[in-house]
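Record pair follows.
FIRST:
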Amino acid sequence: MVAIGFTNSEVFVLLRHIRYFLAVAEQGNFTRAAEVLHVSQPTLSQQIKQLEESLHAQLFDRSGRTITLTDAGIAWKHYAVRALQDLEAGTRAIHDTEDLQRGTLRLAMTPTFTSYLTAPVVGEFYRRYPGIRLKLCEMTLDKIEALLAQDQLDLGIAFEPVHSADITATPLFLETLNLMVGERHPLATRNGSLSLEEFARQPLVLLNGEFATRQFIDIFYQQMAIQPNVVVETNTISAIVEMVRFSQLATILPQAIARADRQLYPLSLERPITVRQAVLLQRKDAYRSAAVRAFTQLLGDYASGAGVSFPETADIPPSAPVR
């Protein structure tokens, strides 16, 4: 029986070939790919030729002004991407430590979450595991799904529905959206519920249409058969909150934001805005580091408390391992 495998040098060459191949495929040009890789163009061309010879297939069509993948190249790219992701995950696994004294967690959230999850959850995570480096980004759901699939993120927090079959979504909690105003608004002291007619007349500052929250709000207005009076659109929650605090504009944001900010006044509606499901996103079959498992557990604790902030002293001691 003959054992077939790769030597260390062969693995290194294969990894280099994969990186070079994917760079050319992405750039569609050998010169630009060489610049990205910080190698000379002749070196890159030679490496791609070696790869094609080893596979006994032409991967690129070089006949046009733009380099394109052949059918064989398209087929091989799928496996090359997966192989590179697995190799990079393996590298992280080697450097991962179960005692959570060091490591990295790459996390992304859609905008509304950063306003009320960052302080209690991310703050508590740092308190427990100060040796973990957290890379936190705010972006749209589509971008989160794409980066998770490319193994450029470990976790994402967003809303259903999830569109990619490569992503798993674990339910966290139901989020309620509220109409809210600042203390200068004439309805700030209103006790009763607003009718649909009153609701429709309110001048609004909202997130723009790129964000899931705005899309959700637009659907609600369509269901109610009313036209929103949107006078300002922006791409940041902080800008919305500041405008509402110091103007007579209203907005629609998660109820949790109003609970955390006493300068915002939630208003009741005759037809409450439908709740939506918050979910934790991960790439299917992705490597789950100790840091990922620790943050997932912490987020689950927060979600089971219906969004209540963590106490000043937690039951789990700092740097406790996650089983």
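SECOND:
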Amino acid sequence: MSEPARSRIFINAMNSLQGGGQTYLRHLIHDVPQAEVYVAAPQALVREISTLPYVHFLNAERWNSGFIHRTLWENLILPVWIRKLKIDVYFSAGGLLPFRRLPCKTVVAFRNMLPFSAENRRKFPLGFKRFRYALLKWGLSRAFKTADAIIFISHFAKQVIDHELPKRRGISQVIYHGVGENYRRTQSLNRPTDLPFEYVLYVSILNVYKAQLEVVEAWSELRKCRSTQEKLVFVGPEYGPYAEKVRARISELKLDNEILLLGPVDYQKLPAYYHHAKINIFASTCENCPNILLEALASETPVLCSNVEPMPEIAEKAAIYFSPQKPQELSAALMKVLDDDQLRRQLASLAAQRAKKFSWDNTRMETWNLLKAVI
């Protein structure tokens, strides 16, 4: 008796250019079920992912030089590939679908909350970036209405879209992101050589909705009340205009020797940065299911976290919350936690326990099961 034909699944991850998008794809492709899987992704990311049986990486790098080029590829080239490869289900990790209806089932993931947050979009100056997010909202809304299935990565995200688009065609499922086991193996992590001192850490892109300016203000307030050896360390890539404002404010407050901007750190090295921090801060005002918060929780260190959803949904009782718009709240939380060894140990233990609820194995299994179920 011959084997049944393998399902053919196409994953479009061309917009996974940094951060959570790349982390998501790394773990999704780590293990593949009995299917022929075709993946379009940035070549820099493809080189990091080991080739597995039945996984075929398609080179569309020439179309990945920007939003407009990717849009042209998705609407002109991609439908041709889908037909030639006889794809059964198309999975858009970025959430968009081509304008032309595809000859297969479609699944989209909702991973970018910014297009649906008018308040945070207005933080960007008038220009292409703000226009792009408005355009993305239109494109995502169109895809969510017509897709056969939507993957939400938090219940908060599902509530947002249920409110915005109550009439949708397909099914939906909440599938949380996971956290890598390398973030949990804290015993073997050596202190980063460029941070030989005690420090408080904030890992994230420097951007208008991440509230690094407010974190700098909170650190300034803390320093007025408390003399200490800790430094504040920012790790992550930069959105240029906002990063300039952050640097200017640091200089104005004369904190150049106490606040460090390290830029991006290699993904494999990040667990040590998290774990050896005295406190991890996450001050974002707009998220969906932030990998950074999950990684900070798993690193077995105290977490001070934005009180904006979905952060409380993700961390629950394992973090101390503050309003990212109120630097004095973060300053007070830092004061409270830095000088209380017992509280830090308690928070670290709660964080590690909470992080056990988030597994990439579960994310991967639930995602593949949904993709196969819609065929």
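COMMENT: Residues 15 and 67 are 8 Å apart (CA to CA).
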